[in-house]
Model the fold of this input.
Amino acid sequence: MYVVTNAIRVKKGYASQLVERFKERKGIEQSPGFIRLELHVTQGLEDYDEVRVCTTWENKQSFEAWTQSEAFRKAHEQKAKDRPDYVLGNQMFSYEVALSFQA
Done:
């Protein structure tokens, strides 16, 4: 499995507004190899809020195919135009899952 996170920093008090923007899906759930999307709100930060957008894929190739798809382009093109002023920045991370346990 392959996991990609986008850590988005927003002004203090705006995490819930960013989460709302992700409730309307833009096609990622139909992408071959897509497993899940989760949003995590980081706790205990003083200067800003942070929302981590975490996507899980069957493999790296599935993620890369999504980033090259028309659905990805459309979803991110609109977000770039409408980027809220409360967004301070972001940083992407990617991981190969080395071990996973489930109850």
